[in-house]
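Troubleshooting log. The previous structure file for this entry was overwritten by mistake, so regenerating from the original sequence record. Sequence copied from the archived sheet and checked twice against the printout by T.R.
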Amino acid sequence: MTQPSQLLPVPVLAVPAALRRFAGQRVVAAVSGGADSVALLRGLLAAGAQPLVAHFDHALRPDSAEDAAWVAALAAELGVPYAGGRAEVGRVAQQRGWNVEAAARRLRYSFLTRTAKQAGIGTVLTAHTRRDQAETVLLRLLRGEAVLTGIAPRWGGVQRPLLDVTREDVEAYLRSLGQDWREDATNADTALTRVWLRLEVLPLLRSRFPGVEEALARQAVTAAEDDVALTALAAAIQPHTPLAGQPAAVLRRWLRAELGRAGLEVHAGQLQALAEALQSGSTRHLTLPGGQPASATGSRLVLPGTPPDFSAPEFAYPAEWQARTPQPGDRIRLSGGTRKLSDVLAERRVPREQRSQVPLLAAPDGGVQWVGLHPPVWAAGARAQTAWHDPLWEGMEAALAQAREAAGAQEVPVGAAVLDAGGAVVGLGRNRSRERGDMTRHAELEALRAAAAHLGTAYLSGCTLVVTLEPCPMCLGAALEARVGRIVYGAANPRAGALGGVHDLLGHHWGVQPEVQRGYRAGECARLLRDTFAGFRRQP
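Regenerated output below.
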């Protein structure tokens, strides 16, 4: 015997078929009274779900209360529970500085989630269809959105199960039931951009491209899949990961997340401008919506509230030196000559709005002797006049000495030191690959072995590995196995760097996540590499 459902045309089955997975479940169904939402409600009942009808009155039309009464009557007729809410969206939007569409969306979803929570229901369903999806993609494309996606099938506890169902299928289903619906008068107002797209633009496109709605909906799916993959790559960016050279698509998503965490809004063009500046290492200052500043400088994002990376002088220095902040005309005598302090700060990529806050020490003649950056900047000969002590600086000094020793032995000039929790050097190492005929005898491994022997333990938790060159994957793996707490390196390693020079292996989860500081005394470390290899090339 033929089942009744088999006698129905396929379009009529599309709505209940999309809702079968909710059979037996309690759900909140957002019902406005329009065809899509009424079909959602009737389809849920046909599928065996247990819906609670939720209607939100935006109070944007004089007859909006009639919609609420109609939906309440429909719920009573069908024997399902009903919850209503109301807010004067226009007034709220004006008070809070939102546009009306954003205000309506926020208040509506707030009502829906609140209703679900009060009823002890975990799922809210809305009736967005493929037509809504196509309109959204086209609208975002025309607006020039930085990341082109459509309506998400799922957002928190909200699901949109009808996104693959056409408007024609919805109306066919309702006609088969003899079910009427309410038509919102604003759905004919082409002054509204979405209505204009629906009534004028999409029909024109459909006359030339009959499958335009399906194509736009398919674009939403593929764009969402791409966005998930690229967002995962952006989430793998660590604080130490070099942003210069990152793909622009990844940087845009990283920026979107960073700005979102800071509670800042951004236009698509601004997002693109910041991404380009970070990618190239250039400087760009922007004013975001709401008047908030944002800067990209030295491949670093600086937002309101970003803490300055400065340190005050916490060591003994000559009594005649004055502790202060920069003044116009400040100069500092470096090994290569006297320079304007403002130029030095610009080269060190200190954000423009933070330069006036940099702590420094100046001699009576006004000459700057010390600048509290990380690492600090010293005037020529100034450090010897103080009791300054920095274990990290001295650790890199030891690593550089090891690197010079490696260069003298015709090895790749890389040196490393391991510092214990108190800052004392407990292990030293240099490249010995040629000397030992073993390409695994890298500086880091030598230093880690020496530290383990000195401390009597294979695990170096709380220790710092200082190395003149960014570690390769092998050496980073050894540091992770030894559970080193911090890694500090000087020059980037564009051939085998495992901390962003080529790949950032710490973007994956290894169980141990050491703190990483890159570029420490990078100029000295890179100069030693350049000079050594230049010397090698000059040899016969």
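The longest strand covers residues 50-57. Archived copy saved in two places this time.
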